[in-house]
Amino acid sequence: IDVSCLEIQIETGKNAATDSEPYVMLRYSNNNGYTWSDEMWESMGNIGEYSKPIRWNRLGNGRKWQFEFRFVASQKYSIVRAKIELGAGL
């Protein structure tokens, strides 16, 4: 299975301004957790960005996918939705 895009939409930006920008990290395994990708960090958006989509493209081919997220944020957030786009592959 080819994962051409993984997207999550995060609702954030509701708290008072902070000095640190919030980030989310994705790493994945396409072989049932035997090996993992490098960490890929993306901004979750600043105060006022209430619903920011975050995308990771061209993750590759595999048969047994696992995804791990890590959030670094001093403000409240929630995952509103997640979407995976599949392409041709294995």
Describe the protein in words.
- With 90 residues, the protein is an all-beta fold.
- The protein contains no helices and 6 strands.
- It has a 3-stranded antiparallel sheet with strand order 4-1-6, with no helix packed on it. The chain has a 3-stranded antiparallel sheet with strand order 3-2-5, with no helix packed on it.
- It is elongated.
- The mean pLDDT is 86.
How many angstroms does the end-to-end distance come to?
5 Å
What spatial form do the alpha-carbon principal axes imply? elongated
For the secondary structure, the number of strands is 6
Q: What summary fits the major beta sheet?
A: 3 strands, antiparallel
Provide the helix percentage: under 10%
Alpha-beta classification: mainly beta
Give a topology summary.
Layout: E1 2-11, E2 23-29, E3 40-43, E4 51-61, E5 66-72, E6 78-87
Antiparallel strand pairs: 1-4, 1-6, 2-3, 2-5
Question: In brief, what are we looking at here?
Answer:
With 90 residues, the protein is mostly beta strands. The chain has no helices and six strands.
Task: Describe the structure using short key phrases.
single chain, 90 residues, mainly beta, 3-stranded antiparallel sheet, 0% helix, 54% strand
